[in-house]
Design goal:
Chain lengths: ~210, ~375
């Protein structure tokens, strides 16, 4: 452990955003399931589930504002953009590691630094998540919060069922994402290393 | 010759007797025509003075009245204003100045009985009288069946009530007011149905029955034989799809709007305090009785509508794209996709984790080797 280096890769605004967002997602999923399946689930009354879902939705939208402000304000947003020249070989190498090398005990081909936080697969995934899926989820959620107020926009998208379809499919996607994300977070040098780092900001560098 | 004269005298005598009786006997009244009433009440300026300088308009717009449901059914002015038995044009006002209140119950017996059990009738105990015409109006009552939710609400409840004051608890209250008639919740025992109407997206208007049937090249009688291919009297999802395709072939692109409205039965008057349900799950539930009855509506110009039963499944399709009750009319296919996504995620995690567990000895050996190499 002597050669371990502590590297500051998760600045405070990112950690605050991450955990508020994570807790928000958990509650949005629980209340969302209650709203979607009221005939089966009984966590809350539908009225309470909708109110909670709305309030938490706004918290998640607000905290996304913090993420945008931080990453664009510091111009660190570039860490989300893969290098087009090296993306494919990097992604293939990373996929091989997750699908094969990790089982053999091979080292992770991606070395995390503050300026190179994500591997090629993470960059691609998070780019889609943060710039497409999450905004789409927030916008469709906002439209469904006040259907009459946003009816012109809903009309433009093809009607309330289309808006709902986008929101519901992304909802299920995020449910699956949360499971996979949680699992992938256990793939550090110890199962809790990445969790710890997301609280302290420091990753242990091997 | 004498016989012929006698016959002529007899005929003329009887005629004279008949005319004499008619003019001299006031109790034998002749029918009063609406046109006679309109001679005075057609005058827009006709009014009578009330207390404190107020006046009451007595004008009846004949152009509107002739389209009223009563006139269409041959009900005359004096059928309702039955205390007018004769008109005496020698007087300034040819009938009694003070007329009795119209007794709607005389004809609408069931509605009258149903109204007794309502908050509006019970308000009478507080000194408020809400007669039928306070809601239904006086002379221009038309068929209400084809009215949209907004027309039904604006024409009745919203005349007195401001629902915005009492529904803050209701999520999406504007959407509820736009798609659900007040009485669906406030007279919950009244049968209700989802009325589906076709909205032409190109011309931005609802197509009434005539327009829709013209586009389908049929009429009211031919509609079901045309669309109901399995002849079960219900338009199922496939048959519904067929209607949309037939319309598209005629370059009519649109969507179906849905609204939850009540059947206009006498019990619709059973609006009572505390009768409304606040349980969202009653509607927002795929098994909700609120969405069991779905009708394809062909609205007619006179305010009536022809309707045909539609399979409930249609509400869960993208053909009814502008009517959606969370949970209640959700698209089931999305649930299946959702389950597949979550099961997929769980499988990836479970598969990878299993492989990690199985390959622990491989990694252990590798670490051992690395240690040995370092030791050398």
């Amino acid at each position: 452990m002597k050669e371990d280096k502590m590297m500051y890769v998760h600045p405070a605004p990112v950690r605050v955003w991450h955990w508020v967002n994570a807790i928000g997602f958990v509650f949005l999923i629980i209340t969302g399931l209650q709203i979607r399946f009221p005939e089966t689930l009984n966590f809350f009354s539908l009225e309470d589930a909708i109110s909670l879902h709305n309030y938490i939705g706004f918290v998640v939208i607000g905290i996304y504002g913090l993420w945008v402000s931080y990453y664009f304000g510091t111009m660190k947003i570039k860490i989300y953009f893969p290098n087009p020249k090296t993306f494919f070989p990097d992604a293939i190498r990373q996929a091989k590691y997750y699908g094969d090398g990790i089982f053999k005990g091979e080292p992770n081909p991606h070395v995390m630094t503050p300026d190179h936080k994500f591997n090629a697969m993470q960059q691609k995934a998070y780019l889609g998540l943060m710039f497409l899926f999450l905004p789409a989820q927030m916008i469709t959620g906002l439209f469904m919060w006040r259907v009459k107020r946003f009816e012109n926009y809903i009309e433009l998208l093809g009607g309330i069922k289309i808006v709902d379809t986008i929101h519901v499919l992304l909802f299920f996607f995020f449910c699956a994402f949360m499971l996979v994300h949680f699992y992938l977070a256990t793939l550090g040098h110890t199962p809790f290393a990445h969790f710890k780092a997301m609280f302290t900001g420091y990753e242990e560098h091997h | 010759m004498e016989k012929k004269n006698l016959k002529t005298i007899l005929v003329w005598g009887l005629c004279a007797l008949f005319v004499a009786c008619f003019w001299s006997c006031p109790s034998v009244s002749r029918a009063i025509e609406n046109s006679e009433c309109m001679d005075c009440h057609g005058d827009e300026s006709l009014e009578r003075a009330q207390s404190e300088g107020m006046s009451e308009g007595l004008h009846v717009d004949n152009n509107k009245f002739k389209f009223s449901v009563h006139n269409i059914n041959g009900i005359t002015c004096v059928d309702c204003h039955s205390d007018i038995e004769e008109l005496n044009f020698d007087n300034e006002v040819p009938h009694s100045v003070s007329l009795a209140a119209v007794n709607c119950d005389g004809c609408h017996e069931d509605a009258g009985k149903a109204y007794v059990d309502s908050v509006h009738k019970k308000a009478g105990g507080k000194g408020i009288t809400i007669p039928c015409y306070a809601c239904h109006g006086y002379h221009y009552v038309t068929y209400l069946e084809a009215n949209s939710v907004l027309e039904r609400e604006n024409g009745f409840c919203l005349k007195c009530h401001n629902p915005g004051n009492f529904h803050d608890w209701l999520p999406q209250k504007d959407a509820h007011f736009a798609f659900v008639e007040c009485t669906v919740c406030h007279a919950p025992e009244v049968p209700r149905y989802v009325a589906l109407r076709f909205y032409d997206l190109v011309n931005e208007k609802f197509l009434d029955g005539e327009d829709l049937l013209k586009a389908l090249n049929t009429d009211y009688k031919g509609f079901m034989p045309l669309v109901d291919s399995n002849k079960d009297g219900i338009i199922n999802l496939e048959e519904f799809e067929g209607i949309v395709l037939l319309l598209r072939q005629k370059d009519i692109i649109g969507t179906f709007h849905g609204e939850v409205v009540v059947d206009l039965v006498p019990e619709v008057h059973h609006v009572n305090r505390g009768g409304a349900s606040r349980e969202c799950e009653q509607c927002h539930n795929p098994n909700s009785p609120f969405f069991q009855e779905v009708l394809f509506c062909l609205n007619k110009e006179d305010g009536t509508r022809a309707h045909h039963k539609v399979e409930r499944k249609v509400l869960e399709s993208y053909y009814v794209n502008h009517f959606y009750a969370l949970g209640g009319t959700r698209i089931r296919l999305l649930d299946k996709i959702g389950i597949a996504l979550v099961v997929g995620g769980v499988s990836v995690v479970a598969g990878h984790l299993t492989m990690r567990i199985i390959t622990i000895p491989v990694r252990r050996r590798r670490k051992q080797k690395e240690k040995e190499m370092k030791g050398k």
